[in-house]
Specification:
By secondary structure, this protein is α/β, with parallel strands linked by helices. The protein contains nine helices and six strands.
């Protein structure tokens, strides 16, 4: 293996909590209730794709693009003021920086990716920062991972993918990567059977990579 590709939302940062708050607030404005089933469908997808699902499932009378603008305004402030890295993030980056190429492959737009890497001070650790702005179809489609591997100048089989959601795991596997699932409190009930390994945290993922994959 020559690279580790990180998902961002829910894997590197505790953003699912922030997205949940934003989406619940928006749903309440229309007297709707955001369910866990809808959240699971939205996870890992491109922003506009997730909002199309949101509008359809909740039957909200608003253009998804307009709703995305509203959510972006809320999330922009939350990411700047309430950004929390997931346990083990610094550990796994420091352990493999300089040994393997590191990349981020996120369904988020470039603006939010920039906010996260700059807030955390980790931009210089990553060879590739791949957003979903120019990706036609988001996860679980493998396209975004295939493009990340191409930008790394590596074959998918040479890359380890770290994901917290089922959509992300499926995307990584379809691309041909070795996929480690790192479930969170929000995704722990998803079926991660498709993953090559399921870690209890980023600490566990780092240990597995060190002992079983990277020699």
């Amino acid at each position: 293996m020559k690279a580790i590709i990180f998902d961002m939302d829910g894997l590197m940062i505790d953003s699912e909590r922030l997205y949940r708050q934003a989406q619940q607030d928006i749903a309440r404005q229309f007297d709707k209730i955001m369910t866990e089933e809808i959240r699971m469908k939205m996870m890992g997808r491109k922003p506009i794709e997730s909002l199309r699902l949101f509008v359809k499932e909740l039957d909200i009378p608003m253009d998804p693009a307009k709703l995305l603008e509203i959510r972006n305004d809320v999330m922009r402030e939350k990411l700047k003021n309430d950004l929390v890295p997931m346990p083990g993030l610094t550990h796994i980056i420091d352990k493999f920086y300089g040994k393997l190429k590191l990349a981020i492959c996120t369904g988020a737009q470039q603006e939010f990716l920039d906010i996260v890497v700059d807030q955390l001070g980790i931009r210089d650790k990553f060879t590739v920062l791949q957003n979903s702005d120019d990706i036609e179809t988001g996860k679980p489609d493998p396209g975004i991972y295939l493009k990340t591997c191409q930008r790394l100048e590596l074959q998918p089989g040479e890359c380890i993918v770290l994901e917290d959601s089922l959509n992300g795991v499926v995307a990584g596997k379809r691309a041909g990567c070795y996929v480690i699932a790192v479930p969170t409190e929000y995704t722990k009930d998803q079926d991660f059977e498709a993953a090559d390994f399921i870690a209890d945290s980023l600490f566990g993922a780092a240990k597995h990579i060190e002992l079983e994959i990277y020699f």
